[in-house]
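Narrative of activities, Objective 1.

The group set out to show that a structural description can be obtained from nothing but a protein's sequence at a throughput compatible with the screening campaign. Below is one input-output pair from the validation batch, recorded exactly as produced.
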Amino acid sequence: MLTSGLAPADAYEYLVLARSKLLGWVRELSDEQYAREFPIGHRSVRATLVHVASAEWGYVRRLRGEPVPPIAERPFSRFQTEPFGPFEGAWADQAQQTRAALQEVQDWSRPVEYVSRFSGRDRRYRTTAGGLATQLLFHEVHHRAQVMFMLRQMGYPAENLDYSVLAFEVEDLEP
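Output recorded for this entry:
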């Protein structure tokens, strides 16, 4: 369960705000830069972002108790070879589904169990609805940092998407 005092749906709104700033930087990339390979993450801005959106789609299905097909059969897989524009729109649509799913949860301690293939092996995962929501949130933060690194390597000033910067009310004091 989240310990910050924020409900998962509220924490997701911060994630979407930070995502919008990140995607603003990505929007400036050429197609070549968007697909450029790096030795981290899923190897490119495109592949890393598509992975995050696809995982979000899967976590939402798991929160709702719906089956999750293999990665190649998920709706975001097609964006591995497409330009950024169509992907950005699809992820915005997914955000609406994610918001709804987070609002629907009545019991964050409800057990959730699923089997997923990871590193070539099937693994059984046991958690709670709150644990799954926490993974959905932190998974994106983890990969967002990788994308920010890639952007900085290409000369984009991708800096500080910290919660306190985007969500706190801040006032400069006179010295």
